[in-house]
């Protein structure tokens, strides 16, 4: 029978998992506290929390919220990055940190409702951020509208040029 502390810890984990839809599971064995603090400081501006979790309690919490298939990734010395925002940003940060710290391993991630393995996370890390992609789409969608406006505006501009020339010609004849 689970203790009151464990039941409360599971409830807190469930709430945290529901509030933060993006999760990255890592193995941190061999990293020193300053290195983990460095990772936390890189994740904090992204709206991420990075914490060591108790596997058995996390597995129960995941099962309770319907993520049983993700619970299998929790074994050994595990820590999880929790995030609300753009999954590409957390992926990039974690992959960059893993490149500079050999002992740090990315196990799996649950990002935007999808379970990803380490290779898929590395691919996601190479993609531009959501904001950059939205900007590119806006530019592409805006170009035809600008071209139409230019084409529709051209006859009016030409008429204005002709009228201005006539006005100047009439002014020259009148003087």
Describe the fold and architecture.
The chain is of the alpha+beta class and 175 residues long. It has 2 domains: 4-127, Ribosomal protein L10, N-terminal RNA-binding domain (Alpha-Beta Plaits, 2-Layer Sandwich), CATH 3.30.70.1730; 128-175. Helix content is 62%, strand content 16%. Strands 2-3-1-4-5 form a 5-stranded antiparallel beta sheet, with helices on both faces. Helix 5 packs across helix 6. The radius of gyration is 28 Å and the shape is elongated. The chain starts with a helix and ends with a helix.
Keywords:
16% strand, 2 domains, alpha+beta, 7 helices, 175 residues, Alpha-Beta Plaits
Q: Helical segment tally?
A: 7
Q: Which structural category do the helix and sheet elements fall into?
A: alpha+beta
Quaternary structure = single chain
| Poorly predicted runs of 5 or more residues | none
- Give me the CATH architecture of the largest domain, please: 2-Layer Sandwich
- The strand count comes to 5
Secondary-structure element series: HEHEHHEHEEHH
Write out the strand line-up for the largest beta sheet, numbering strands in chain order. Answer: 2-3-1-4-5
Classify the fold: give the CATH topology of the largest domain.
Alpha-Beta Plaits
Q: Radius of gyration, Cα only, in angstroms?
A: 28 Å
| 3D shape | elongated
N- to C-terminal distance? 106 Å
């Amino acid at each position: 029978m689970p203790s009151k502390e464990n039941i409360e810890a599971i409830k807190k984990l469930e709430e945290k998992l529901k509030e933060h839809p993006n999760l990255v599971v890592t193995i941190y064995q061999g990293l020193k506290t300053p290195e983990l603090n460095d990772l936390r400081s890189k994740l904090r501006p992204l709206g991420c929390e990075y914490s060591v979790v108790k596997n058995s309690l996390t597995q129960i919490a995941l099962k309770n919220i319907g993520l049983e298939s993700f619970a299998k990734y929790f074994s050994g010395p595990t820590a999880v990055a929790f995030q609300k925002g753009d999954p590409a940003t957390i992926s990039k940060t974690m992959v960059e940190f893993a490149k500079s710290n050999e002992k740090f391993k990315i196990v799996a991630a649950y990002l935007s409702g999808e379970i990803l393995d380490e290779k898929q996370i590395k691919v996601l890390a190479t993609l531009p951020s959501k904001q950059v992609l939205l900007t590119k789409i806006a530019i592409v969608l805006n170009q035809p509208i600008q071209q139409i406006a230019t084409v529709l505006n051209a006859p009016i501009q030409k008429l204005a040029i002709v009228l201005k020339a006539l006005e100047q010609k009439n002014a020259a004849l009148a003087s």
